[in-house]
Amino acid sequence: MGKDLSQFIRNEAFLDKVVSAEEAASWIEDGMNLGMSGFTLFGEPKEFPIALSKRGEQEDFKINLYTGASLGPTADQSMAEAGIVNLRVPYQGNAVMRGKINKGEIYYIDQHLSHTAEEVRKETLGKINYAIIEAAAITEDGYIIPTGSVGNSPIFVEKAENVIIEINTTAPSAYEGLHDIYVQKEQGERREIPIYNASDRIGEIGIKVDAEKVKGIILSEQPDVPSPLFEPNEETQQIANHLLDFFASEVAAGSLPQSLAPLQSGVGSVANAVLNGMASSQFKDIEVFSEVLQDGVFDLIDAGIVKFAAGTAFSLSKKRVDSLAEDLEKYKDKIMFRPQEISNNPEVIRRLGVISFNTAIEVDIYGNVNSTHINGTKIMNGIGGSGDFARNARITIFVTSSLAKDGAISTIVPFVSHIDHTEHDVDVIVTEQGYADLRGLPPVKRAEKLIEIAHPKYRPQLRAYFEEAKEKVGGQTPHILEKAFSFHTNLKEKGTMLMEEEVTN
Amino acid sequence: MGKDLSQFIRNEAFLDKVVSAEEAASWIEDGMNLGMSGFTLFGEPKEFPIALSKRGEQEDFKINLYTGASLGPTADQSMAEAGIVNLRVPYQGNAVMRGKINKGEIYYIDQHLSHTAEEVRKETLGKINYAIIEAAAITEDGYIIPTGSVGNSPIFVEKAENVIIEINTTAPSAYEGLHDIYVQKEQGERREIPIYNASDRIGEIGIKVDAEKVKGIILSEQPDVPSPLFEPNEETQQIANHLLDFFASEVAAGSLPQSLAPLQSGVGSVANAVLNGMASSQFKDIEVFSEVLQDGVFDLIDAGIVKFAAGTAFSLSKKRVDSLAEDLEKYKDKIMFRPQEISNNPEVIRRLGVISFNTAIEVDIYGNVNSTHINGTKIMNGIGGSGDFARNARITIFVTSSLAKDGAISTIVPFVSHIDHTEHDVDVIVTEQGYADLRGLPPVKRAEKLIEIAHPKYRPQLRAYFEEAKEKVGGQTPHILEKAFSFHTNLKEKGTMLMEEEVTN
């Protein structure tokens, strides 16, 4: 490799463990449970999954794959293509893997991201046989320094029978000190999570590992795959503006200070547009207590709007990846990554009173949210941390464009085809048409507000459904079950959710 | 009243505040927000709501009513009958009130019971104008001693502009010492909830109140209304047996100790059958960390099975009400009531690793649960605390008979008509046919297990739906949306969910 290994492996007990990725991959047996580092394309092992996938092209075996969240082309995609994944837990976002899941070729458990560590503790799927963890270094004290995500790596390392470390020699050395690794004890034996501000450091800078358990160390020079850069367009800008208006009205009403409250934002174009919009806003000294930190967070720190940002992983575009080593030095007192069990923990989210905003696929007239399934059947990515935050936040916001598929789909429908977040957990919905503040409203009044932020061309048929349901059936939550999915079935039959009457009008 | 008032009102600053219920009721103005004590028929004020209802028969006004949970005939029913309730939050269980809610005459927000205190803090519906709290006594130090429930009383007293105390002179004096009153600060300013065992006492024995804020004290001699006694029948006994078998198998597998884990059980016939069944079980030294404590808990303490029980309210049958004064003395070191924000708090439930079991109205083949709505439209009671526990529990169990309405309804359906608990939060479903352990299973494997615990006469049509959905649509969660509610529409059209083919077979 041409590099001085002792710079990366600083504890002698680990030095003789270096093996090829192929050798490490050869240890994996059919039916094993693997726990891999990686979250939103950052911090995943690269050489190992490629070697395992290559082996899979020759041999017949399947593994169950746990991760933090979505892995990239070298991991989720190559393993899906090689046909070596039996079961995937708790989140994915890769097109190839998604396709195989939806064909029934890969089983998938779509799980709250804060729950996975508990399931590993309980051995719901048996023991983790191998943890495979990307690292920037192994310290003198035998700590694994993670790279661009923490995810579930600490619990994988603690519970796995064997550990494989993939040292990425291209990882910025400034990753060391970025992480705050805190692992809870078993339920019933643990204490509180002592976080009272997003910036409270409660753990250690790396993952303690028993050298005995480390079966091999792989060396890698493969960088993380940057995430797409989500530039705002007119529509996402409108959504962002409405959301910023909502925040401003809360501040004006005295319900929130100018520092708002610790902020969680989902990943994607709307989230990025909101972060962009904040750069020229009145808000200041904001704490971010989130899952994923995107490009915008760095900009907001520069602008003095964000004073601290905690999460469990980066999701950065190429531009930010290129300057990462420099940025990590610059922002090292303002950024922190914790295990996803902590970044997404109900205890902390509720204590801090986080404001949460995430993207919805569809929303029904009573405020139930589908975050995962297209037409109730095909999974997109997964619920991720949206439920961890939505249930426990001070204000729970979901954002979506009112239309999808060039207007063939209204994202506001009578009855969502899959429910990830129930009406009990949803406070505010934002589309490019405006925002619906549902707080303190019973279902029938929620519907009035939600129909108003549907796209104008769909409002008449939403109104017609709602009025007919109130008139003919009534009840706390008026529905006509035989028509509840009429938008969806119309889409299937006619290629659009727009009913014939409206089309011909 | 013939009783020595100073025995109940032991602080002089309060002694001159005694007024008639009629006078107190006269203070209430149209549009006010009232926060009343009371939870599952226990600990509600009685004289005040009756007086307010009487006033409502003469005058035109409406109030918004917050409580802990369901109130009884003197409160929810009399106020609903008088037509003085505009909005009801967060739970009800009275037939008259339910009827008016479903007719759209009363607005109702069906809320997670741990969330209501946060909504009061945030003033989502504005300030609480009056808190009306039933008390056993006011102490020398000016603490209100609650009666048979704590519910949301502490936050109502803290945040209300005015407080009315209804002293119930028939309440056992042994209520004093039963309660553990701990109120959290605002989000962002609070610390952890320092409960590490169900029995940890963290608060005070009463609710501190500023005498200045107490506008009046009413005297009452009306006892609580006992709850129906839920005697096990053959079916509830079968469900209970399956659940006990599940617990036994977890113990046998080493996943749980003989003390299980802190136990939460819903209210009703199955819960009571389970508690009865436990009395002759192998389990011992169980801690109960629940919302409502029913008759069975006393029996299990007697049998040495339960060593401590914490909740927020009693729900007791007449037999136990009659011996309550004596029982409170006898069990005072083994029972504790906390505010529902604490008894149901995600932080504590998850830390302790509570086992939760609650009743479902219907369950779909993928494990989504409807706890609240009949045919997706008419509300029954409300979600109550089931979501607080289900989301955060170590094992989340829902129980239901596989049939309802003399077999016209299958409680296992293709798609639930309303979702309160999503597949992400549901581990085990129990019917009289057996239990389905869904842990670690993807949706299509969950369906296989769930169809097996449906009633045999509905299994063929559930199987037919599932196979057709897999075949024709596929995906992570196969559904045929146009037939997803076919069971429900068949019921509406033909009076039974059983399809014609099966009937004629």
TrEMBL record, chains A, B:
Residue span, Acetyl-CoA hydrolase/transferase C-terminal domain: 326-465
Domain Acetyl-CoA hydrolase/transferase N-terminal: from-to ranges: 11-214
GO biological process annotation, one example: acetyl-CoA metabolic process
Gene Ontology molecular function: any one: acetyl-CoA hydrolase activity
TM stretches of this protein: none
Classification via PANTHER family: ACETYL-COA HYDROLASE
Protein name, UniProt field: Acetyl-CoA hydrolase
